[in-house]
Structures
1.
Amino acid sequence: MTSSLPHADRKLRTPFQTAYPCEIWPYRLRSRGLVVTLTTSVVAIFFNTFVNPVALDSIGWKYYFVFIVMLILLGVTVYFYYPETRGHTLEQMAILFDGDAGVPSPAEMAQRSKSLVSEKNAIIISSEHQERV
């Protein structure tokens, strides 16, 4: 089956469709999150390709009321159930989304900072110790 627009399918292929979900999902859930994202995209594309034209032919311009209702439901859901993220630090965001499990213990934080400092010193020492020929 060919498209009436020669390169219309290329607009659907974007690196953000895989990169963004991989960035926002925690490491242990990345594969499942990516599957949910890609499945949702395929279902939406199928719906827009095969269902919308039939509904528009059946009830005409009144089908746009379906979209209006869906947008209103989406807006109400986002307003009442999605947490506010503006103005929070990354640590506060981890607590907001993951609860107390999202915050590392003080011992773990000390170990991380100690390893970062030692790595930084190793880089500085190795860059100072270059021999000149």
2.
Amino acid sequence: MYALALLIGIVAGLRTFTAPTAISWAAWSGRLGLEGSWLALLGYSWTPWIFMLLALGEFVGDQLPSTPSRTVPMQFGARLLSGAICGAAIGSPHDAMLGGLLAGIVGAVVGTFGGHAFRLRLADLPQSRYPLLPCRCDLACRSGHAS
């Protein structure tokens, strides 16, 4: 359970809205029982669709050259909050909401700074030789979303 909370935190660190989208779909489908907790709203019928639109908007917005670094306080804070809420949601059915929340925060820190370092390394590679290389971080995040 803590490993899953850490993993969803890493996903939140890579893409802020991808993690709540995955959690929301899991709660809506009944795979993640959040009934009776303050996180039950993640399983409401419209919530997965709203988060999916936000995740798509974030994906498009992150490709723009004017998008600030993921490590600036506003974006970093949003990633931490996303990881915390999603980690708490994973811990909630196991009566370990606080542990899941902390694991989600740690995962968000790892995902944010790991993704930042990964993108910096990609920027050093010649683009003419590897034209689709910047998409790999996004593909890694999406594969974490699918699991």
